[in-house]
Write a structure and sequence with these properties.
Strand content: 25-35%
Order of helices and strands: HHHEHEEEEEEH
Structural class: alpha+beta
Shape: globular
Number of domains: 1
């Protein structure tokens, strides 16, 4: 009886598909982090004001990142940044001519902070920046997160990356 239990436990623990699925569930963005730090990411810099607003630095300073970015629909830019110093600091962003949204997250995919900059209704003047409540932005974040999880698997932008910003 004891041998049977040990054998069953060994099969469960040692099953690659179950353990891989558990790892993906625990850290869904980890494959994208690896690809960004490896072959896909380019050296870039996060602007000082953004690093401060997101809480990555106590005062405005440039944060070196590895970045994957893509232009979509001719005017919009989406991107995935991993801090070169702290790989747990991930910023997923979407920039349009009138709205710029930055999601601070982690390899586990936990939404930590959201910053949004909007141009005024008439389109004149500077962008107005607001810190948004992460709990109110989960649906938008899930769309962005899914986009980059798809890129991690295929190295291409999927249909999940093309959606209108509210």
């Amino acid at each position: 009886m004891r041998r049977g239990i040990v054998l069953i436990l060994a099969l469960i623990v040692g099953s690659p598909s179950w353990t891989q699925e558990a790892k993906r569930t625990q850290k869904p963005l980890a494959p994208m982090v690896r690809r960004t730090l490896g072959e896909m990411g380019k050296d870039a810099q996060m602007p000082p004001i953004l690093s401060t607003l997101l809480g990555l630095t106590p005062k405005p300073e440039i944060v070196p990142v590895k970045q994957i970015a893509a232009k979509i629909r001719g005017t919009d830019m989406i991107g995935f940044d991993v801090s070169a110093k702290n790989h747990r600091d991930i910023v997923i962003f979407r920039e349009t001519p009138t709205v710029r949204t930055y999601f601070l997250t982690s390899p586990e995919g936990t939404l930590r902070k959201v910053i949004e900059s909007r141009k005024s209704v008439n389109g004149a003047g500077d962008f107005k920046t607001t810190v948004l409540d992460p709990s109110d932005q989960k649906q938008r974040f899930e769309k962005e997160r899914q986009c980059w999880m798809d890129v991690a698997e295929t190295s291409k932008l999927s249909s999940s990356c093309y959606f209108a910003v509210e």
